[in-house]
Amino acid sequence: MVANTLAPPVAARPQRSRSRSWLRLIILLAIVAVVLYPLIWMIGTSVKSQQEIVSNIGLLPERFTPGNYTDGWSNFDVSFGRFFLNSAMVSLLTVVGNAVSCLLAAYAFARLRFRLRRLWFAIMIGTLLLPAHVLIVPQYILFRTLGLVGGDWPYLPLLIPQFLATEAFFVFLMVQFMRGIPRELDEAARIDGAGAFGIFRHVILPLSRPALVTTAIFSFIWTWNEFFRQLVFLSELSDYTVPVALTLFIDSTSQSAIGPMFAMAVLSLLPVFVFFVAFQRMLVEGINTSGIKG
Amino acid sequence: MALTTAPDPTRRGTGSVRPPATRRGTGRIRHGEGLAGYVFLSPWLIGLMGITALPMLLSLYLSFTNYDILTPWSEVEWVGLANYERMFTADPSWWHSVRVTLRFALIAVPLKLAAALGVALLLNRAWRGVGLFRGLFYLPSLLGGSVALAIVWVNMFNRDGAFNSFLALFGIEGKPWVNDPDWALETLMVLAIWQFGAPMVIFLAGLKQVPTELYEAASVDGAGRFRQFVSVTLPMLSPVIFFNLVLETINGFQGFTAAFVLSNGTGGPIDSTLMYTLNLYIAGFTDLEMGYASAMAWVFLIAIALITAVFFSTGRFWVHYSDGEDR
């Protein structure tokens, strides 16, 4: 299978190449089925009645049961609307924090000369591979000592790091992007009398929009799906974000909660799916620019 | 901000006279630029110090203590290497979590990369449907890390789940795989492999960089397709394979969400899904043994650093960088 697919352009033998491309299409469609099946099954299950979830093994329900959505929405003492608002707030503020702080750091790394620049850059690359789990215990202790865990506004421990460019991935992505902006533009602005700030404001910032958009999309999706830190830092039910709230269903999984649980799972993936449809190209290309160049 | 648009007085007049003052890399630090550099870098620097470096040092200190969140700082005791000793000699569940994590990474990562490469090869040649397929295959990578999808996965491999209905088509009677200690981790591996889209996208971009002349030359020399794959595609793709391997291995070691959801935070059934990070979470936030959890975190960090170092030192022997070709 592998061997007959990486072909160099085959000019002759149209007969064989046609049957080959049919074979390839069939294999690809089979993979599409495997990839999409869990998602379709999830949506189908979310509109099945409790009885059908056990008895009907097909993808689609015999009787459409939208009631799972209203049941799930108000399954706990706090409505899912609140969880969605909390998640949206954390995600949007994270987007702002990452965009601003990572752009500033990236400009310094990509364009400015200053002492120890290479050392700081190497350290930044090093933190790319630093697992979040390694830092969680001491961060929890520090934020708790500062009175920020479970404080008046319990999202600060989630958001403060995002405003301090700790997401090295985005810094790196933007550095890579800025390296592609012609330096002649900087020089031209400098001749016109602009300093480091002026060049940032008038050259780099407007031209970095694509990198900013990529950063915004990825940081929204990742934060929306993020679980570990939200699990650690949020303790009040009314402060929960969607992922943390979804785990409440697991505690109570008597069979009866499966329909509502699936309904809320579907709703929780909806924003990501919308982003995917709207920005598919950009997402795929974002992976590439950050991935292999350099 | 008015400040950002104000022209720098020290530059006026000299800029047009001086030839392109600093070439990249070798330039001297321009007057004022060093300061500006640190101004722009300051949020990152504060983050590095406060959110990364300080916690790391604190965690190193804590790993030699019996700290739990409940005792006041004044009563925290220095216990020397006791946490590390306990981990290596007296805590079978720690060793167990190491085995679970290694098994997960050693099986799931190669299979995921093989799937990614195989599908990338299928999609490689330019034709109309590529964009659509590429997008569809990438979708699981966006959704797969979420709690929602982990919930779906656990139910899919449960007694009444979709997987058993599928097996029933062939007359095979399934079982609640997620409750079976011999199979629970495997269902999580399948979830990881299902997310082959992200490395696939990177492979696809790498394949595009392979010059067609190489295939033509190989073909003239009489190399068949398999030979071309081994002698042209694999070496040309080796930097991308290396990149994906390092990244996916490190990610594989950190699997948390799905294991948490499957076991409701316990690592069960019978510790079969006790991934290292889940074990660390239980030690730190369920048992509140934060000193011990810190020791676990440091061992984890050192292990990841060592594995990365091993990758990079062996990479010299099999990663082929072609010069100038893709510039």
From TrEMBL, chain A:
CC annotations in GO: plasma membrane
Gene3D superfamilies: MetI-like
CDD domains reported for this sequence: TM_PBP2 (cd06261)
Organism superkingdom: Bacteria
Xref: InterPro entries: MetI-like, MetI-like_sf
Cited PROSITE patterns: ABC_TM1 (PS50928)
A biological-process GO annotation: transmembrane transport
Topology class, membrane: Multi-pass membrane protein
Transmembrane region(s): 22-43, 83-107, 119-143, 155-178, 199-224, 257-279
Cellular compartment(s): Cell membrane
Domain ABC transmembrane type-1, chain residue ranges per copy: 84-279
Keywords: Cell membrane, Membrane, Transmembrane, Transmembrane helix, Transport
Pfam families in the record: BPD_transp_1
Family to which this protein belongs: Belongs to the binding-protein-dependent transport system permease family.
Protein's name in the database: Sugar ABC transporter permease
UniProtKB/TrEMBL annotation, chain B:
Gene Ontology biological-process entries: transmembrane transport
Classification via CDD domains: TM_PBP2
Main location: membrane
Membrane-spanning intervals of the chain: 38-64, 102-123, 135-156, 183-207, 228-247, 295-319
Localisation: Cell membrane
Gene Ontology CC annotations of this record: plasma membrane
Similarity comment: Belongs to the binding-protein-dependent transport system permease family.
Protein name stated in the entry: ABC transporter permease
